[in-house]
C-alpha cells in the first residue's frame, strides 16, 4: 500500500522494464528527473527500520492518498480570496470530520476551523502539537502560491499524528488550525489575538517551493496605505487653481525609489499607485498608494518604516497636498525557525530520502513574508519550504499550474510524513517542549513574549 506511488511512476516508465544492464541506467535517469521516485525508494526501505508508531503514521497518510489528491484538486479548482474561503473551509472540515476529528467550524473567524484528536491518556505534561492549514488564493491567478498543497499537507500531517496517537501508543494531543487569509490578510495574527494558539506547545506547516529548506528566510512585512488630498480644477482653463494629488503620489514613488541606493541589501520596499485621478481634464484631488515594507528583523523593519514615512511626508510638502497614511495593524513578523524542531524534521526527512539544500547562497536567500512568522514569535515553530521539482517562482501562473500536478502532490505527501514523524518525536520526548521554549525565549522579540 505504501509503495503504490512508486508503482505509478514505474508504470509510466517502460524503460524500467528493460534488461538489467539497461534498466540500471534508466533508474538513474528517472531518479534525476523525478525526485519523488528516489524518495519513494528510500521510504520503502526506511519503513522497515521505523518504530511501529511511525510506520502507522506513514501508512495512514498513504492510505488516504487518492482522497487527499481529490481534496487538493477541489481546492485548486475553486480559488477563493482571503477571508472568503467558504468552499475550501467546507471541503477541509468535512474531510477531517469524516475521519474522526472533533471539528469546530467558523472557529474565531468565519473561514477558520479547529480540529482536534488525542491519545486516550493525557496529563499536564502531554505535548500539544499544532498543525496549520492554509487555503486562500491570489487575485487573478488562483492558487499560484500552492495553498491547495499547503491545505492537504496540514491534513496529511494530522492524519499521521492522529493514527500514532490512537493506534500507535504515542501520548499526545493534536490541534489542526485552519488559517484563512495568509495572502495579505494576516489571518493567523487575528487568531493569535483571539487566543487560538494558547493551548499549543509548538506549530508546524510547510510551503511548496523550488528547494528543500528546513529553515527558510522569511522576512518581516508591514503594509502602508497612503492617501494624498489636493484640490480639483479644470486642467486646461484654470490649472493654477488646482493642487495635484497625483503629482504627490508620483513624487512619493520617486522618493522611495531614490532611497533604495541607501537601503540595506536585505531591505525591500515595493508599491503601486492604486488611484491617480478621474479624468485627464481634472486636476486630481485625491491619489492613493499601497506599499509593502520588508526587513529581516523587527528593529530593521521599524527603521525602514521611518525612512519611508519621510519620503511620504516630503512629497506632500513639495506639492502642497495634505497626506494621511497608516501602517497595517497585521504586520508580518520575521520567521524564527526553531532549531530543535527543524533538526527533527531534517532527520526524519533524510530517512525518507529527502535531500535538503546545502548551497550557502540558497540557504541564506530571503524569500517573502508570512503570518506564520507571528506564530513563530510566540510558539516554537517551523515553516520549511519543500521542492515540487520546479524552478519557477511562486505567484506566477506557471507555479499555479505546477501546484496542480501529480508530482507536486506526491512530493507534498513525502514531506508531510517527515513532519508528522518529527511531531511524533516531540510527543515521545516531552522534555523537548521546554527545550524548544527556552530556545524561543532567547531569540524572540521582547514585544512577543507572553
From TrEMBL:
Every Peptidase M20 dimerisation domain range: 220-317
One Pfam family hit: Peptidase_M20
Stretches assigned to coiled coil: none
NCBIfam families: amidohydrolases (TIGR01891)
Entry-linked PANTHER family: PEPTIDASE M20, XAA-ARG DIPEPTIDASE
Family recorded in the similarity comment: Belongs to the peptidase M20A family.
Protein name according to UniProt: Peptidase M20 domain-containing protein 2
Amino acid at each position: 500500500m505504501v509503495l503504490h506511488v512508486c508503482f505509478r511512476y514505474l508504470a509510466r516508465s517502460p524503460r524500467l522494464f528493460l534488461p538489467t544492464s539497461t534498466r540500471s541506467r534508466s533508474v538513474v535517469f528517472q531518479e534525476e528527473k523525478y525526485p519523488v521516485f528516489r524518495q519513494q525508494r528510500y521510504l520503502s526501505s526506511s519503513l522497515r527500520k521505523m518504530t511501529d508508531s511511525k510506520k502507522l503514521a506513514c501508512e495512514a497518510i498513504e492510505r488516504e492518498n487518492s482522497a487527499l489528491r481529490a481534496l487538493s484538486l477541489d481546492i485548486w479548482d475553486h480559488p477563493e480570496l482571503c477571508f472568503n474561503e467558504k468552499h475550501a473551509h467546507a471541503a477541509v472540515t468535512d474531510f477531517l470530520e469524516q475521519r474522526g476529528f472533533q471539528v469546530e467550524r467558523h472557529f474565531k473567524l468565519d473561514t477558520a476551523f479547529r480540529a482536534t484528536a488525542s491519545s486516550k491518556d493525557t496529563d499536564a505534561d502531554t505535548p500539544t502539537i499544532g498543525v496549520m492549514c492554509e487555503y486562500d488564493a491570489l487575485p487573478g491567478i488562483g492558487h499560484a502560491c500552492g495553498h491547495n498543497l499547503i491545505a492537504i499537507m496540514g491534513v496529511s500531517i494530522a492524519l499521521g499524528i492522529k493514527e500514532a496517537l490512537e493506534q500507535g501508543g504515542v501520548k499526545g494531543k493534536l490541534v489542526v488550525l485552519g488559517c484563512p487569509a495568509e495572502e495579505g490578510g494576516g489571518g493567523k495574527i487575528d487568531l493569535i489575538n483571539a487566543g487560538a494558539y494558547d493551548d499549543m506547545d509548538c506549530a508546524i506547516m510547510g510551503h511548496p517551493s523550488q528547494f528543500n529548506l528546513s529553515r527558510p528566510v522569511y522576512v518581516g512585512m508591514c503594509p502602508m496605505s497612503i492617501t494624498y488630498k489636493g484640490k480639483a480644477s479644470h486642467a486646461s482653463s484654470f490649472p493654477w487653481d488646482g493642487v495635484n494629488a497625483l503629482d504627490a503620489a508620483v513624487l512619493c514613488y520617486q522618493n522611495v525609489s531614490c532611497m533604495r541606493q541607501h537601503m540595506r541589501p536585505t531591505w525591500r520596499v515595493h508599491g503601486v499607485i492604486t488611484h491617480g485621478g478621474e479624468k485627464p481634464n481634472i486636476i486630481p484631488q485625491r491619489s492613493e498608494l499601497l506599499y509593502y515594507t520588508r526587513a529581516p528583523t523587527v528593529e530593521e523593519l521599524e527603521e525602514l518604516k521611518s525612512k519611508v514615512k519621510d519620503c511620504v511626508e516630503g512629497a506632500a510638502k513639495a506639492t502642497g497636498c495634505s497626506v494621511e497614511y497608516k501602517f497595517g495593524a497585521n504586520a508580518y513578523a520575521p520567521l524564527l525557525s526553531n532549531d530543535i524542531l527543524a533538526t527533527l524534521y531534517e532527520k526524519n526527512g533524510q530517512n525518507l530520502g529527502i535531500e535538503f539544500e546545502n548551497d550557502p547562497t540558497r540557504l541564506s536567500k530571503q524569500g517573502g513574508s508570512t503570518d506564520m512568522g507571528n506564530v513563530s514569535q510566540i510558539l516554537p515553530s517551523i515553516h520549511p519550504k519543500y521542492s515540487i521539482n520546479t524552478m519557477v517562482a511562486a505567484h506566477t501562473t506557471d507555479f499555479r499550474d505546477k501546484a496542480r500536478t501529480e508530482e507536486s502532490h506526491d512530493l507534498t505527501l513525502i514531506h508531510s510524513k517527515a513532519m508528522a514523524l518529527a511531531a511524533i518525536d516531540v510527543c515521545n520526548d516531552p522534555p523537548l517542549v521546554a527545550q524548544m521554549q527556552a530556545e524561543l525565549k532567547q531569540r524572540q522579540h521582547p514585544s512577543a513574549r507572553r
